[in-house]
Design brief:
CATH topology: TIM Barrel
CATH architecture: Alpha-Beta Barrel
Shape: globular
Number of helices: 12
Radius of gyration: 19 Å
Largest sheet: 8 strands, parallel, barrel
Number of strands: 12
CATH class: Alpha Beta
Strand order of the largest sheet: 1-2-3-6-7-10-11-12
Helix content: 40-55%
Mean pLDDT: 94
Structural class: alpha/beta
Order of helices and strands: HEHHEHHEHEEEHEHEEHEHEEHH
CATH superfamily: Aldolase class I
Number of domains: 1
Distance between the termini: 28 Å
Low-confidence stretches: none
Amino acid sequence: MINRLIAKIQQTNAPIVVGLDPTLKLVPRHLQKAAFAELGETLEGAAEAIWQYNKGLVDAICDLIPAVKPQIAMYEQFGIPGLAAFQKTVDYCKEKGLIVIGDVKRGDIGSTSESYAIAHLGKVRIGEREHYSFNEDFATVNPYLGSDGVKPFMKVCKEEKKGIFVLVKTSNPSSGEFQDRLIDGRPLYEIVGEKVAEWGADCMGDSYSYVGAVVGATYPEQGKVLRKLMPKTFILVPGYGAQGGKGADLVHFFNEDGLGAIINSSRGIIAAYQQEKYARFGEEGYADAARAAVIDMREDIAQALAAGR
């Protein structure tokens, strides 16, 4: 799957993943009104509004980007109907040729971790048959329970030719409370990064491992260090746009081959219509605003990479 992700990045010339992280306050009123008229102000109504919102976004941007990253908590808050909307979103994105990174941040041990891996990347056996459940292409994984929590995912990835992105240095402001703590004189995120590179050496695609890393755009200096520690690791970089990251911060996340990183933007794309820059599209033109924001992001990254080489 890492080979396919790289091919899609090269095809679109866009090392971009769009986070499909919907909340009702982001969903335009006309979509909410239509869903509530059909299903009421219920969990089912909210889930329908979110699904229609996602569908419009995907239709508008699927030819511009290689991948999407739905954040499962945004769907779980609406219970079983929300999870059904998550599943419909995953399936629709794959129909449109997009690679789906399930932002699930799972991490446990033993049979629990194995079950998470099966749920999101693998197949579950029921009697004599096997079935896919959510069936994303990649999943995000929390490594802080150690190898016991990661290896079940690696096993399923090998079986299914899929991938994971392991949390190394996250984009949130308080990440340093733990991730920057010094262990034998080195920050913990460096030690985790080295472990990711070690895991990845056993799970190689043609040129990059399908054990990737998550490193926030809001920490470019740490990104520079981690890029050197993990030369064969693909880095998923959250924090662009709404969280403050910009193209100039991203150069060091890439290798000299122009690959090695994929940059995530969520609200900056899916809620672009709420920004002054894209206000001309109006609320009902939310999908066209998202398309314009993707084009601008692609150009920003391209210019930064050109200037940084």
